[in-house]
């Protein structure tokens, strides 16, 4: 049986009082309540259709606990439910209202200037990850592991998480680059040391854990962390206590751990190249940031953002990238991901004369595509123009064919065998083409 929330007026009124508006037949995309007592293909199909058609976030509510099992819950989530709960007359409205409030808060933050000042790009693939990141950042202090190729924005996301963290008296964001840690000093780097703990320890020093107290410890390149150190850190991450090197006193710490790596850490764990226990501890939440090639629609918004940042320094406002520059940026590949794009844009900005948009003349010669690619671009623009002018495929092919033959004959000083070679056809084929034209 499927009942709409309208059949439970008391709940509906309670929710309205709490500011939760139930989806009406007009499909306003807010929250939908689906009350059921049997999970079956019919209910799943209705749910699938409803969630697709309305864009509403649907909370599926079992009228009694027996109606729900783990398997049924997963099926309802797969069919589009955003939450699955059992009806509890006393607190169902409060549960729904709280869930609704949290969704709204995350939506509001996703649209906020704060989030977009850290992370530019609104494609569905990034937004889906970002939505979860924002929720984890605001409502938890659990460990986060960021995976992704170099330059995809892992450090940037770590900064965002720290800035969204709502702990009172929030501490600082402390970054440790695991790749540059000197093994002999690694203990001191993390735990600090007492005076005289080792040769050269002239005075007591705090380590990264002490500095990150009440804040965030960002462990960059965590995949490079030596195994012995992984074991030492595991203890601290689990127990939240540590001792300075050469000291006896235990210190308690409260920090959020964010780790990042461009290595395929799950695969390394599988082949025993990284400790599994440490991996599971650091990755309570694991997010993978997509490479730029999987979200090419971000190239121009990111380029505008970086151009603005770069030219802001020279007090230029509202920079515009002209059509050629956009084309140039869109045609390029970025194996170094967002970092590489940023560097390219900074090079363009460095050549900018200070007035007008960024133009082709701002592209450093070394960045220009090779001549063959430029010819291809010109050909593309000509074809584009022909299509816009209403030429059909047949006409365009014919005109291109004739232009190619003319160009080859002219370049070969009308020597047919040579022109045929340039066109990669046999002499006879070219002769036949020319004969056709004389008919
Ligand atoms: N979505 C984004 N919006 C704005 N700037 C971004 C975004 N992603 C990355 N950047 C910028 O791109 C550059 C590289 O990003 P970042 O250092 O965060 O990458 P990373 O994944 O940590 O790289 P690595 O693995 O090499 O350390 C930085 O200058 C960062 O500010």
UniProtKB/TrEMBL annotation:
Keyword ATP-binding among record annotations: yes
Cited InterPro entries: AAA+_ATPase, AAA_lid_NorR, P-loop_NTPase, Sigma_54_int, Sigma_54_int_dom_ATP-bd_1, Sigma_54_int_dom_ATP-bd_2
UniProtKB keywords: ATP-binding, DNA-binding, Nucleotide-binding
Keyword tRNA-binding: no
Cited Pfam families: AAA_lid_14, Sigma54_activat
Domain of life of the native organism: Bacteria
Classification via CDD domains: AAA
Sigma-54 factor interaction domain mapped to chain residues: 119-350
Protein name, per record: Sigma 54-interacting transcriptional regulator
Organism: Pendulispora brunnea
